[in-house]
């Protein structure tokens, strides 16, 4: 019979903690008699009185009851619902300190998970924003009902409780106007919100997309069914409210799922696309297109990717998670040819459309899994000088990393939104004959715990000769 472990704290205990670090979720890290407690909203250097909320074998969670010694880096969050909303994690920390935290986060992952010797790799300070507010070009807000009216806002942390909001300080101002207007019109017209527990009701999410370079606006209504009561009245009022509105799209999602979008979309008014730019490249953005949410920092990130690719005009580049072609087209400005591969057919159709939009003929896009398409390209005699990867948070598929190692490109440019999976994949690539030369974090998501990273790897000479 296994012996029950006696922990130094139990649920509901109140303890005094010295906070010495932030974890990857930006929770304060304290220790009580050697036992680690993660404390939401506590900052390094602070002494807090905390209440234990949950215990596990090796760590637990607690909340701040009182700050006994306050960090000089603590700020008053400008958002009135910051303490309840799960959208931001770091508004209470001075922005310069946020950047230092994210730099250390990247370094820790590269050392501990990636096994890198940081004396031999240039890891640069995080590139921050001059104005780190109102930077997002897309918002997607769940809709609910309260006392007969529609509410909309982000979820309370670790729950699906909607915190109704009037404004979100990291979204573009027009997104706030859209959410408020849809709530107001929907309440007045009797459009019911979706009830997740009962799988009933209609309006699930409102998605707003705004082109920073063009000023164009798209509104997407995600519904649990096709029929929208008083649809024409709703559309007319939205069109009247927003002179820059170019598109209203209904997306139908009738599944019991946390996934926001369903498979079917139809244009209720206007065009199926809005347009935006990154540098000199123009992009058509549809309701379900993935497009980087911070256009200012995206240009910074892509210029760094261009520098790491080190293109002189004779190279063949493969973009292994090309999406709607954002990086592919950016790099095609200087490469001989770029081949993009993406598993989502709609994204590839958008990528091809964007190539035509910019008159680019030196790019090709294929639908499929990169780990299958790239070897097929190789069998056709195509040799990649540079391979670019920008995978989802889970990182690269293991078979894709194997394919990269076998293909031996001169350079790999790895763009990541998750430093831990970046570090894991770098370790595999290094074991396969690559060296990490430079790592540049970019603050794509100010006031949250997330950070984007660009890394440059080069094939070693001995590996290249095999």
TrEMBL record:
Q: Name one GO molecular function term.
A: rRNA (uridine-C5-)-methyltransferase activity
Domain of life (superkingdom)? Bacteria
Q: Which residues form the TRAM domain?
A: 8-66
List ligand-binding residues for S-adenosyl-L-methionine. Answer: 292, 321, 342, 390
User: Which residues act catalytically here?
Assistant: 417, 417 (nucleophile)
- Catalytic class of the enzyme: transferase
UniProt entry tagged with the keyword 4Fe-4S? yes
Give the EC number(s) listed in the UniProt record: 2.1.1.190
Instruction: Kindly indicate whether the keyword Transferase belongs to this entry.
Output: yes
Q: Which InterPro entries match?
A: MeTrfase_TrmA_AS, MeTrfase_TrmA_CS, NA-bd_OB-fold, SAM-dependent_MTases_sf, TRAM_dom, U5_MeTrfase_fam
List this protein's GO terms for biological process.
Answer: rRNA base methylation
Keyword annotations from UniProtKB, A to Z: 4Fe-4S, Iron, Iron-sulfur, Metal-binding, Methyltransferase, S-adenosyl-L-methionine, Transferase
Q: Please give the family membership noted in the entry.
A: Belongs to the class I-like SAM-binding methyltransferase superfamily. RNA M5U methyltransferase family.
NCBIfam families annotated for this entry? rumA
Q: What is this protein called?
A: 23S rRNA (Uracil(1939)-C(5))-methyltransferase RlmD
Lineage of the organism = Bacteria, Bacillati, Bacillota, Bacilli, Bacillales
